[in-house]
Design brief:
There is one protein chain. The protein is mainly α. It folds into 4 domains: 157 residues, HUPs (Rossmann fold, 3-Layer(aba) Sandwich); 93 residues, Alpha-Beta Complex (Glutamyl-tRNA Synthetase, domain 3); 52 residues, Glutamate-tRNA synthetase, class I, anticodon-binding domain 1 (Helicase, Ruva Protein, domain 3); 104 residues, Arc Repressor Mutant, subunit A (Orthogonal Bundle). Helix content is 48%, strand content 11%. Strands 1-2-3 form a 3-stranded parallel β-sheet, with helices on one face. Strands 4-5-8 form a 3-stranded antiparallel β-sheet. A two-stranded antiparallel sheet has the order 6-7. A hairpin with a 3-residue loop joins strand 6 and strand 7. The model has no long low-confidence stretch (mean pLDDT 96). Bound molecules: glutamic acid. The site of glutamic acid has 7 residues, from loops.
Length: 470
């Protein structure tokens, strides 16, 4: 049997990381078994669906690298097909028109509520030859009135539902448009879906959908309902907890590989391993490894995973991912060798690509002023003489290697009888404008000779002015 999985988001907002995890699990399962991964946009709720939300889904999937073999299908383009199925069900007596007015249903509901019963349709039009009152009917599915539906869920185990709880759900509205349960079932059948891996907020829908599916003569797919993602407070993850949209994580400088790795592990485990390449994940992923309880989202751990990826990704790949964050803050990245060297020097120093770019401004173009606190603390009178000597020796230095740069800074500290840090830190502030940068030799090399000398001049001037003012 060839495996077909699907990801069917409703385009009503952003791409939630919980949905991205669902997409990932389906993608991994299809990839692992050489199957087909289908993307289906469930846009039948025309009031809430937007093109913008569709774009965000496609952009998020592309950024994560979750490619699909079929789709995107759009349910709004399949209304003829749904109508055909509804007609078929009605013709077979498996669904029926219901003419009950809103008022009648409302009264029924109130009556049931006050009798402390669960509100459900009472089957008024079910087998009633006099039901047709000339109004446009909805179509209801004829759910077995008693008995039970057992769902063999591959995460939860067997879950039993009492059919009496399900009532005759509406599969087509009075304007002829299909409802959610019908479209999902028809699509899963038509698209040959063999495995439905989705959030367990859909578990209660499953018996209803299976009834329809079986009424249509189809075999059940395998169901695996994955527990939700909660925030650290144990409540369902939402905007209150911070970023929940995939593209927001992209904008914050998280690598797609890191987000995938983190999401894969959030609710699924394979021994103690934390870091997985996508190939490793694909080889290891199995439904059996999905946890049975809700996962708690942990932003610190995601940051840690991201750091691991920033540190270990092949340099060319890291540069490719990092560059847009540099250009986004106005850095000219046309000097490729410089970009490579800076990214390599910063990869152990940044938790996100945003941070990496921010910390790298001093290595490109002109210095955008000095950090006030750093200048105040380190560019003081005592630093003037060593910085002046450094200015001279660095000017005379032709070999701009790390070893020669280190030796120069050390020798200046020695001749001024100062601790290395007392010289290196003012130097760092002078050439980068800030008190944090890679080691001083690497920093000098990345800033380059011309810029180092210019900036030392400015720093000396800054100290002079300060001394004059005092
Ligand atoms: N469109 C549904 C949602 O976004 C998914 C339905 C399903 O997985 O069956 O929640």
């Amino acid at each position: 049997m060839s495996i077909v999985t699907r990801f069917p988001p409703s385009p009503t907002g952003y791409l939630h990381i919980g949905s991205a995890r669902t997409a990932l699990y389906n993608w991994l399962y299809a990839r692992r078994h050489g199957g087909t991964f289908v993307l289906r946009v469930e846009d039948t709720d025309r009031e809430r669906s937007t093109q913008e939300a569709v774009d965000v889904i496609l952009e998020g999937m592309a950024w994560l690298g979750l490619d699909y073999d079929e789709g995107p299908y759009f349910q709004t383009q399949r209304f003829d097909r749904y109508k055909e199925v509804v007609d078929e069900l009605v013709a077979a007596g498996k669904a029926y028109p219901c003419y009950c007015s809103r008022e009648r249903l409302e009264a029924l509901r109130e009556q049931q509520m006050s009798a402390k019963e669960k509100p459900r349709y009472d089957g008024h039009c079910r087998d009633n030859p006099d039901a047709d009152n000339g109004s446009a009917p909805v179509i209801r599915f004829r759910t077995p009135p008693d008995g039970a539906m057992v769902i063999e869920d591959h995460v939860r185990g067997a879950v039993t539902f009492d059919n009496r709880e399900l009532d005759d759900l509406i599969i087509a509205r009075s304007d002829g448009t299909p409802t959610y349960h019908l479209t999902v079932v028809v699509d899963d059948i038509d698209m040959g879906v063999t495995h439905v891996i989705r959030g367990d907020d859909h578990l209660n829908n499953t018996p209803r959908q299976v009834h329809i599916l079986e009424a249509l003569g189809a075999t059940r797919p395998v169901y695996a309902h994955i527990p939700m993602i909660n925030g650290s407070d144990g409540k369902k993850l939402s905007k209150r907890h911070g970023a929940v949209s995939v593209l927001q994580y992209r904008d914050e400088g998280i690598l797609p590989q890191a987000l995938l790795n983190y999401l894969a592990r959030l609710g699924w485990s394979h021994g103690d391993q934390e870091i997985f390449s996508l190939d490793e994940l694909t080889a290891a992923f199995d439904i059996d490894g999905i946890n049975k309880s809700a996962a708690a989202f942990d932003g610190d751990k995601l940051a840690w995973v991201n750091q691991q990826y920033i540190q270990t990704l092949p340099l060319d790949e890291l540069v490719r991912h990092a560059e847009p964050y540099f250009t986004a803050i106005g850095i000219d990245t046309s000097d490729r060798a410089q970009l490579d060297a800076v990214v390599d020097a910063q990869r152990t120093r940044a938790k996100t690509l945003v941070e990496m770019a921010e910390k790298s401004r001093a290595f490109f173009g002109a210095l955008d002023g000095l950090d006030e606190d750093a200048a105040h603390k380190h560019l003081r009178g005592t630093a003037f003489a060593p910085l002046k000597t450094l200015r001279e020796r660095l000017q005379a230095l032709d070999d701009w290697s790390l070893a020669a740069l280190t030796a120069t800074v050390e020798s200046v500290a020695e001749s001024h009888e100062m601790k290395l840090g007392k010289v290196a830190q003012p130097l760092r502030v002078a050439v980068t404008g800030s008190s944090a940068s890679p080691s001083i030799d690497v920093t000098l090399q990345l800033v380059g000779k011309t810029r180092c000398l210019e900036r030392l001049d400015s720093a000396l001037e800054y100290i002079s002015k300060r001394l004059d003012a005092a």
